[in-house]
Automatic annotation (TrEMBL), chain A:
[4Fe-4S] cluster 2 binds at C380, C409, C412, C415. The complex is composed of six subunits: RnfA, RnfB, RnfC, RnfD, RnfE and RnfG. PANTHER family: ION-TRANSLOCATING OXIDOREDUCTASE COMPLEX SUBUNIT C. InterPro entries: 4Fe4S_Fe-S-bd (IPR017896), 4Fe4S_Fe_S_CS (IPR017900), Ion_transpt_RnfC/RsxC (IPR010208), Nuo51_FMN-bd (IPR011538), Nuo51_FMN-bd_sf (IPR037225), RnfC_N (IPR026902), Soluble_ligand-bd (IPR019554). It is a peripheral membrane protein. One of its GO terms (molecular function) is metal ion binding. One of its GO terms (biological process) is electron transport chain. This is Ion-translocating oxidoreductase complex subunit C. It is found in: Cell membrane. Gene3D superfamilies: 3.30.70.20, NADH-ubiquinone oxidoreductase 51kDa subunit. Its cofactor is [4Fe-4S] cluster. Residues 361-389 form the 4Fe-4S ferredoxin-type domain.
TrEMBL record, chain B:
It comes from Candidatus Taenaricola geysiri. The modification FMN phosphoryl threonine is found at T155. This is Ion-translocating oxidoreductase complex subunit D. Its cofactor is FMN. Keywords: Cell membrane, Electron transport, Flavoprotein, FMN, Membrane, Phosphoprotein, Translocase, Transmembrane, Transmembrane helix, Transport, Ubiquinone. Its main location: membrane. InterPro entries: NqrB/RnfD (IPR004338), RnfD_bac (IPR011303). Part of a membrane-bound complex that couples electron transfer with translocation of ions across the membrane. Signal peptide: none annotated. Belongs to the NqrB/RnfD family. It comes from the Bacteria. It is a multi-pass membrane protein.
């Protein structure tokens, strides 16, 4: 029996156009936009000024506080300005703009391969945490929570399990899948580093069963070197949501309002594990990542190794441009991603995909009326009643919305996806949540 | 103005729109309606057409009058018309069908606010209205056209409400299965009903919770009361009601648990009416009664939210 959670939906995968394509580096962009806030928490504070010269990998903005993150230049070149610029999630955000030079240079301290005799099990946990936090690593699956925070559980919580999230349940996205196929050993080393910091024995990798080839690769690689277990999961959305993943793999529910810590678990995504390996073993900060550039408007969809800060427009050009007029540009996947007003927004640390969708895929719908079909109720992985919350929110009865546990909504969009009346259930619920918190 | 559309996630939606679901339901009722016409002859076809036409026209006219967007294309009025006709005796006059559909759409559906807002199943409420107003027309059933006495027989099921609980009655089980018996247009041919229902179940447009619990409840209670399990579930309008009317989305509970409870309630009431009631057949009334109980069931069957202790 494949493991899974209760509820969920089955959107079409749309992964075939990129899942067999090797990761290739994207060309050097003409301009780099590095927002000071690319993570959950307080924004970073610039330590460079316009006119300065920086090398790739140099710190250009420093974390402010514990829940924050350093930001590094992804190229060598000249700082042009520090000013508000397009941001894929926030709309606008102060950013450091850099013009890359032709001959790229990166910090000498960054290595190409690990020292011989590198052993993730022998490292000192405090050194690892230091490396992770100074490398500016954040959760790369989307939420962008600073990784060192996720690796520092409160003293009173006992962590016994590390879950590596390789579910990649969002349609279109294949970057984690490709990483597993192309960099299995490095990822395994990253997982071992994580296990070391957390002091856990039990490491499990969750992969949806439609990505069996990557499950095989990682299993073979891990058998060679350790006792990391691979668990195939039912292909269902939102399998990659932390709470649903923990439920599926360990049969444990994270308590309402709680964190994975409360279930004795830490969850990290595949790309994050790799970034942590690179930070610890290669001394390389997080300044580039793999991004799936796809969608029915893109001529040649691809998995690209992208310098963080590269604007979407350059990546569209990199992939052969448009064969159809895009109706929507989405940062992230089609289920939870953010629609963009323009092609200006840059790739940030949490950007796993950029999609260019035509009206055939991302159609516009008029909201109808609820026919009480119950599809949203069956779809909700948090066991809520989306339709009831929706109508309470429309009447501005936020007290009722709160009683209906709207704050437990993980904003996965499964309810809206399955609603035949095309109600914007998750959109309204998200808004209602913000109103409750006010 | 931005070049690209900005709207909340998700940016893709499932294929199943309200319209698509409704028209698939229409398609699923068709085999039953066609079987009814085959069994009872052309007058049944006129009743079906008149009923559907009246339902659609009423909805269109009222939509116009109340200046609401025209919703007839969503197929729900067609469903109401079809279901109402299926609930009529094959010999009923055409004006009965027209009046029933008018009542169903105008009073039961639109007066409550239209699609999604009505409390009672429009077709069943329409039938109940006809039953109260013109009981003679509504309880004079016709025999299949292949029988020697095609002329209206006396109410075959009403003759003896207890009789349908036991195997002693007239038609054989096979006859009941293929529809070689008296009754309403849409309720006699069980095999056609199962074809349509199987299709809807396969497509996921109806779930098994309500109909299966409903049918089993009636069967088991009848068996416990000394009757026949198979006979009781084939008899009357149980199959048709369980698969096509107790599964109406608008007027039944939201959660799977609530839907099962709804089926259980329908089953108990149907059994009670059949055994002790004055009406020949309990299916319509039990579903209507449970429709009224739906808001309460919804409240009782709120689910435990993920990560919370049982409420
Ligand atoms: S209510 Fe929230 S958690 Fe439930 S399906 Fe909708 S978006 Fe997901
Ligand atoms: S899925 Fe849409 S139509 Fe169905 S019950 Fe939920 S809100 Fe209503």
């Amino acid at each position: 029996m494949l493991k899974s959670f209760f509820g969920g939906v089955h959107p079409p995968g749309f992964k075939t156009s990129t899942k067999n394509k090797n990761i290739r580096p994207a060309a050097l962009p003409k301009k780099i936009i590095l927002p000071l806030s690319q993570h959950t928490g307080s924004s970073a504070e610039p330590v460079v000024s316009p006119g300065d010269y920086v090398e790739a990998g140099a710190v250009i903005a420093k974390a402010t506080g514990f829940i924050s993150s350093n930001i590094h230049s992804s190229v060598s070149g000249k700082v042009l300005a520090i000013e508000p610029a397009a941001h894929p999630v926030l709309g606008k955000c102060r950013a450091i703009i850099i013009e890359p030079e032709l001959q790229q240079k990166r910090l000498d301290s960054i290595k190409d391969c690990a020292d011989s005799g590198f052993d993730p099990g022998k490292l000192n946990p405090a050194d690892i945490l230091d490396a992770v936090s100074s490398a500016g690593i954040v959760g790369m699956g989307g939420a962008a929570f600073p990784a060192h925070v996720k690796l520092s559980p409160p003293k009173n919580k006992k962590i016994d399990t590390l879950i590596i999230n390789a579910a990649e349940c969002e349609p279109y996205l294949t970057c984690d899948h490709r990483l597993l196929l192309e960099r299995p050993i490095d990822i395994i080393n990253g997982i071992k580093i994580l296990a070391n910091v957390l002091g856990v024995k039990k490491c499990i990798v969750g992969i949806e069963d439609n990505k069996c080839d990557s499950a095989e690769v990682i299993r073979n690689a891990s058998i060679l070197k350790s006792d990391i277990k691979v668990v195939p999961l039912h292909t269902k959305y939102p399998q990659g949501s932390e709470k649903q993943l923990i439920d599926a793999m360990l049969d444990k529910e994270v308590p309402s309002g709680g964190l994975p810590f409360d279930a004795g678990v830490v969850v990290h995504n595949v790309a994050t594990a790799l970034a942590i390996y690179e930070a610890v073993a290669l001394n390389k900060p997080l300044y580039e990542r793999v991004v799936t550039v796809s969608g029915d408007c893109i001529k040649d969809p691809a998995n690209l190794l992208v310098k963080i800060g590269t604007p979407a427009s350059e990546l569209a050009a990199e992939c052969g441009g448009f064969i159809k007029k895009p109706k929507k540009i989405i940062f992230g996947g089609p289920m939870m991603g953010v629609a963009q007003p323009s092609e200006d927004a840059p790739v940030i640390k949490g950007t796993s995909g950029i999609l260019f969708l035509s009206k055939d895929i991302a159609g516009e719908y008029n909201e109808g009326v609820c026919i009480r079909c119950g599809a949203c109720v069956r779809a909700c992985p948090m066991y809520l009643e989306p339709t009831t919350i929706y109508y309470a929110a429309k009447k501005a009865r936020f007290d009722i919305v709160n009683d209906l546990c709207a704050l437990d909504c993980i904003e996965c969009g499964a309810c809206s996806f399955d609603c035949p009346a095309r109600l914007e259930l998750s959109g309204i619920i998200k808004y209602a949540k913000a109103m409750i918190k006010k | 103005m931005s070049m690209y559309t900005i709207s909340p996630a998700p940016h893709i939606k499932s294929k199943d729109s309200t319209n698509r679901i409704m028209w698939f339901v229409v398609a699923a009722i068709l085999p039953t309606a066609i079987a009814g016409v085959w069994i009872f002859g052309p007058h049944a076809a006129w009743l079906i057409l008149a009923s559907v036409a009246a339902a659609v026209l009423t909805e269109a006219a009222l939509g116009r009058l109340m200046k609401k967007p025209v919703t007839v294309t969503d197929g729900s009025a067609v469903i109401t018309g079809l279901l109402l006709a299926c609930n009529l005796p094959a010999g009923a006059p055409v004006w009965i069908a027209v009046l029933g559909s008018f009542f169903a759409i105008a009073i039961v559906k639109c007066a409550f606010g239209g699609l999604g807002k009505n409390i009672f199943n429009p077709a069943l409420a329409g039938r109940a209205f006809l039953m109260l107003s013109w009981p003679a027309h509504m309880t004079t059933w016709q025999n299949p056209r292949f029988w020697p006495d095609v002329v209206s027989s006396a109410t075959p099921l009403a003759k003896n409400a207890v009789e349908i609980m036991g195997p002693g009655s007239k038609p054989s089980l096979w006859d009941m299965f293929i529809g070689n018996r008296g009754g309403c247009i849409g309720e006699v041919c069980v095999i056609a009903i199962l074809v349509g229902a199987g299709f809807l179940l396969y497509k996921g447009y109806i779930k098994w919770y309500t109909p299966i619990v409903y049918i089993l409840t009636v069967g088991i209670l009848s068996r416990l009361a000394g009757g026949s399990f198979i006979f009781s579930i084939l008899a009357g309008g149980l199959m048709f009601g369980a698969f096509f009317m107790a599964t109406d989305m608008v007027t039944t509970p939201l959660t799977p648990g609530g839907q099962a409870l709804f089926g259980l309630g329908c089953g108990i009431i149907t059994f009670a009416i059949r055994k002790w009631g004055g009406y020949p057949e309990g299916v319509s009334y039990s579903i209507l009664i449970m429709n009224a109980a739906t808001p309460m069931i919804d409240r009782l069957t709120k689910r435990r939210v993920f990560g919370k202790k049982k409420r």
